[in-house]
Amino acid sequence: MDLILTAVSGVALVATLTTSVSADAVPTFPGPKADYHGYDRYDFVVDGCKCTVTAPKVAAPGNQWVWRAEFFDAFPQIDLALLGKGFYLAYMNVGNTFGCPSAMAHFDAFYAAMAGQYGMAKKPVLEGLSRGGLYVYNWGAANPEKLLCILGDNAVCDFKSWPGGKGRGPGSPGDWQKLIQDYGFKSEQEALAYTKNPIDNLAPLAEHHVPLLHLCGDADEAVPYEENTVILEERYEKLGGKITVIVKHGFKHHPHGLDDPTPVVDFVFGLLGTGASKGRG
C-alpha cells in the first residue's frame, strides 16, 4: 500500500449519574459481558440508546478511550490496535441519523456517563468512519475542549457531497431524504443552504488546537476525497489547525482502515506524550 503522510501546521441512564470516579480507577460497566475479539464487551443503555464498551486487558493510564461514532465492528483494525495498547472502545447506537441535533443530544448524555459515572478520560479519541464523520465533527465542534483528537476514515465532511450527491459522487437519494427529515429541514433548498457542515464549522476545533488525522482513498467513488477531506484540510490549515492526512492511492471507499494501523496508534500515543507502549492488552 502506498501511503503519503502529510503533516499540516497549524441523561437518562440505567443508573442515575450522581458521582464520578477517579480517572485511574478501573471502571465497572453494567450489562451482560460478552466476547469481542478476545476482549470483554459490555452492553447497556444510556439515554434510551444501546451502548457498547469493550475493555482492554490492561488499561493505559488515565482510562483512555476511542469513541467509534458509526459502524461498530466494521473494519476494526484501528480499534483492535488501540484496544491492544490499553484503550477502551466505546460506541453508542443513535441510528442512522447523520449527526443531527437529536443524535448529538444523545452523544452529550453518553459522554457525561463515560467521563463522569465511569471515570473515563475527559478527552476521548473521536473516530468517524464514512458518514460517521458527520457525527464526530458535529459533536466535536460543539465540544472542542472534550477531544483528544478526531480520526476520519473516508469521512463525510459535507452532506451535500454524500448523501446529497451534489458533486461528482452518486450520493444516496434515500439517505438524503432521511437526512433532510432528521435535521428538520423544510426543503432540500434549506438543506443545501446549511452552513454548519464539518467543512464550514472548523473554527472551534482550530481555536482549541484539536489535532485531526484522516485516512483517505483518493479514488473514493462514494465520498469523493476532493469534496470532503481536501476541502476540510485546506480550510483547517488556513485556520491554523493541525491535520495529518494518509492518502491511499488508488483505493475506493472500501476497504476502510489500514492493513497496518501503526501510524494511527503512533499518532494517538504521540498526543498523550507517551509513545505506543508495548506489552499492553
Strand order of the largest sheet: 1-10-9-8-7-5-6-4-3-2
Radius of gyration: 18 Å
Taken from the alpha-carbon principal axes, the silhouette is globular
Strand content: 15-25%
Based on the structure, what is the oligomeric state of the protein chains?
single chain
- Quickly give the CATH architecture: 3-Layer(aba) Sandwich
CATH superfamily: Alpha/Beta hydrolase fold, catalytic domain
Number of helices: 8
User: How far is the N terminus from the C terminus?
Assistant: 27 Å
Structural class: alpha/beta
What is the compact description of this entry?
With 281 residues, this protein is an alpha/beta fold. It has helices at residues 77-84, 101-117, 132-142, 173-183, 188-192, 203-207, 229-238, 262-272, and strands at residues 3-8, 33-36, 39-46, 49-55, 65-68, 88-92, 125-129, 149-153, 212-217, 243-248. The two termini are 27 Å apart.
Could you describe the 3D structure shown?
- The protein has 281 residues and is α/β, with parallel strands linked by helices.
- It has a single domain, classed as Rossmann fold (3-Layer(aba) Sandwich), CATH 3.40.50.
- Helices cover 28% and strands 20% of the residues.
- It contains 8 helices and 10 strands.
- A 10-stranded mixed sheet has the order 1-10-9-8-7-5-6-4-3-2, with helices on both faces.
- It is globular, with a radius of gyration of 18 Å.
- 44% of the residues are buried.
